Amino acid sequence: MQWLGQILRTFMALQRDLAEQVLQKAKGSLAQLPHCQLSEPAFRKLLEDALGQAGHQLRSFQENFEKVLPPPTIQPLLPGAERQVQALLSKYGPGKLYQVTSNISGAGTLDLTLLRGQIVALLQNKDTKGNSTRWLVDTGGHRGYVPAGKLELYHVVPGEEKLRGQVGPPEDARHLTPEPTPAPFPTVSTGTQVVAVYPFVARSSHEVSLQAGQPVTVLEAQDKKGNPEWSLVEVNGQRGYVPSGFLARAPSPAPWGWSLPS
Questions:
Q1: What does the pLDDT look like over 168-192, one tens digit per residue?
Q2: How sure is the predictor about 165, in pLDDT bands with cuts at 50, 70 and 90?
Q3: Molecular function terms in GO for this entry (predicted)?
Q4: Which CATH number fits domain 192-251: 1.10.10.10, 2.30.30.40, 1.10.510.10, 2.40.10.10?
Q5: What span, in angstroms and rounded, lies between the C-alpha atoms of 25 and 56?
Q6: CA distances from 41 to 27, 37, 44, 45 (A)
């Protein structure tokens, strides 16, 4: 028993010495930290001031970032959608119009299926359960819910604003997009060809997809309503509408060989 008591006393002494050594090293490390001599209230105030300064810098950075943001990209309107936009503008005003940024496939009975570039009017920025990620919109012919993340505020063209109040109620949404019909070939000057400058992905059966640099045959340099922003073209045997700004006339390469004087 004496041996056991001696062993326990020795172990306790070693533990005490080790604890004192650790405490001394911890005090030395703490002394090297900044503001270690401050009282707790002073340190708390210093911490609050530092956090406030960081928050101010973050808000300033956010404001500067928003100032230098590029202007929002305006998607071209679907062919024949001008009347729909004018009707929605007349009924709801410019502040309620939004443009679909990507195709939407409705999954529920109250969800809408929309194409990228389509214009809708915002009715309510939440659903019946208070979910702000689903918005209730009006297409001019149907009402339903769409994901809020796939909508962006539509910037009304000044010409459309002048027509506000001069249009009647829109027709059914099925009649808003014209059916492409064959049209005579336009007169193209000799030695030029029309090519696609940018790629374009068709969003409906009335449009046709393009690849950059792809040769294009222009059938009509406007849509059925005379809008020059859309052209009826033929690509790889398929006909459809594409944005006119995506096309350009490029000179054809000169043929090989000698040409005899006439």
A1: 444 443 333 343 333 333 433 333 4
A2: very low
A3: guanyl-nucleotide exchange factor activity
A4: 2.30.30.40
A5: 38
A6: 21, 12, 5, 6
